[in-house]
Amino acid sequence: MTTASSKKTAVLYARYSSDMQKATSIDGQLLLCRKVALRNNLDVIGEFVDAAKSGLTEGARDGYQRLLNGVRNRNFDVVVVEHFDRLSRIPQPSSVSSRFSSSTALS
């Protein structure tokens, strides 16, 4: 879903998994993701967040499920995350990659 100015649209996803981490972890992840989006000239159109949710429980994460719905509907071009493990901690490599048709490494 590229805009008229050919700027790609992006959403950000952040998650922390336990009570031992703090909500500020989400803020830090989103800040880093915004910087990556800015550096790569992406138009950030949304954010998805899951607080105190394990990466092993994909079905129990509302933010992740909304993100997947957006991917399926092609509502945006790019998903920006601090680290790939924010999306999933399930060991099967196809778990997350099968849900996302293509990926681009951003610096």
Strand content: 15-25%
Discrete helix count: 3
Topology order in helix (H) and strand (E) letters: EHEHEH
Seen as an oligomer or otherwise, the chain set is single chain
Count of individual beta strands: 3
Mean pLDDT: 78
Query: pLDDT under 50 segments (min length 5)?
Result: 93-105
Helix percent reads 25-40%
Shape: globular
Instruction: State the strand order across the main sheet.
Output: 2-1-3
Radius of gyration: 13 Å
Task: Describe this entry's structure for a reader.
The protein has 107 residues and is α/β, with parallel strands linked by helices. It contains 3 helices and 3 strands. It has helices at residues 24-39, 62-72, 94-97; strands at residues 9-15, 43-50, 78-81. The protein has a 3-stranded parallel β-sheet, with helices on both faces. The longest helix has 16 residues, at 24-39. The protein starts with 8 loop residues before the first strand and ends in a 10-residue tail after the last helix.
Short description:
The chain is α/β, with parallel strands linked by helices. It has helices spanning 24-39, 62-72, 94-97, and strands at 9-15, 43-50, 78-81.
Outline the fold blueprint:
Blueprint: E1 9-15, H1 24-39, E2 43-50, H2 62-72, E3 78-81, H3 94-97
Parallel strand pairs: 1-2, 1-3
Task: Give structural attributes.
globular
